[in-house]
Amino acid sequence: MIATPASIRIPAYAKINLSLRILGRRDDGFHALETRMVPIDVSDEVEIARLRGGESSLTCSDESLPLDDSNLAMKALRAFEKRTGVSGAWGIHLEKMIPSGAGLGGGSSDAAAVLRGLNDLTGCRLPLETLAELGAAIGSDVPFFLHGRACDATGRGEIVSPVEFPHQLTLVLIKPPFGVSTPWAYQRWAASRPLAEVSYEAQVCPWGEMVNDLERPVFEKHLLLPAIKMWLLAQDETQAALMSGSGSTVFAIVREGAQADALAARAQAWCGPTCWVRVARTMHR
Ligand code: C5P
């Protein structure tokens, strides 16, 4: 028998959506979409340890997050246990660096890390397709995070195909102090209207067209977000700017050779200390 380690620590990377087009509402209440997601070098750290006894438990550096079975990391543990029949108690710790309600996929990425971590720790060796099937039942983005590379996604976002993505993009991410509820954003999509003087059109870039159909409903309610997007678009360093997922993060892609740090510093000064501002890079392989 191969000995398996007692604990594991893995990074759970965030993502941005370089495009997100909604094709329509489906009979099951989800929305059919076409999206391109790319991992970025902002990450949580997920630690999983085999406990000697007692109950499985979750701890988290962010006290505002639930620690019960409603947390996607716990959902991942339960799904893995149900599928494999493995028993035992596990201690899961989430060291959060990815903001929540940000459209950066933090919760889904943590869930994917738990599935991968348990698969390694238990020696179960479920194939990627099986993990992705478990992941899809937890959240539409989880299969993407299991692939861990740039993907195009269809269906409700759970049908993923890896794509070649040779570009190394530098980004400035801005997340205001509020989050956006994903179900709410999708629900508002059909009845939403564009705001005057806000640019929603597809931005043609070497890596494809950048557009996000969720900007329309989210911008209508959270007026700071279109203001951030238009401010970013007006900066010399910015090649393109978009909201990620259902928000509330808005990001700029920084022109090659331009100073991302300078843009980030000005952005922080412009939107104030309550906004989370980061320079990040897309990850590729
Ligand atoms: O799959 P996920 O848990 O991320 O979805 C959260 C909610 O967002 C869903 O319950 C649904 O209301 C909405 N959603 C949607 N269409 C999608 C993805 C999510 O309507 N493609």
Tell me what you see in this structure.
The structure is a single chain. Strands 1, 2, 3, 4, 5 and 6 form a six-stranded mixed sheet that branches. The chain has a four-stranded antiparallel sheet with strand order 10-11-7-12, with helices on one face. Strands 8-9 form a two-stranded antiparallel ribbon. It has 285 residues and is of the alpha+beta class. It is 29% helix and 31% strand. Helix 1 links the parallel strand 3 and strand 4. It is globular. The mean pLDDT is 96. The protein contains eight helices and twelve strands. The structure holds cytidine-5'-monophosphate. The site of cytidine-5'-monophosphate has 11 residues, from strand 2 and helix 5.
Alpha carbon gap, first and last residue: 33 Å
- Name the helicity range: 25-40%
Structure summary, number of beta strands: 12
Rounded radius of gyration (Å) = 19 Å
Element-level helix/strand string: EEEHEHHHEEEHEEHHEEHE
Question: Which shape, going by the Cα principal axes?
Answer: globular
Structural class: alpha+beta
Low-confidence stretches: none
User: What hetero molecules are bound to the protein chains?
Assistant: cytidine-5'-monophosphate
Number of helices: 8
Roughly what fraction of the amino acids lie in strands?
Answer: 25-35%
> Main β-sheet, in a few words?
6 strands, mixed
Rounded mean pLDDT is 96
Please specify the SSE layout and strand pairing.
Elements (H helix, E strand, L loop, with lengths): L6 E19 L5 E21 L5 E4 L11 H13 L4 E7 L10 H17 L5 H11 L3 H6 L3 E4 L4 E4 L7 E6 L6 H8 L13 E3 L2 E3 L4 H7 L2 H10 L4 E6 L6 E5 L5 H12 L4 E6 L4
Parallel strand pairs: 3-4
Antiparallel strand pairs: 1-2, 2-4, 2-5, 5-6, 7-11, 7-12, 8-9, 10-11
Helix pairs in contact: 1-2, 1-3, 2-3
Bound molecules: cytidine-5'-monophosphate (C5P).
The site of cytidine-5'-monophosphate (C5P) has 11 residues, from β2 and α5.
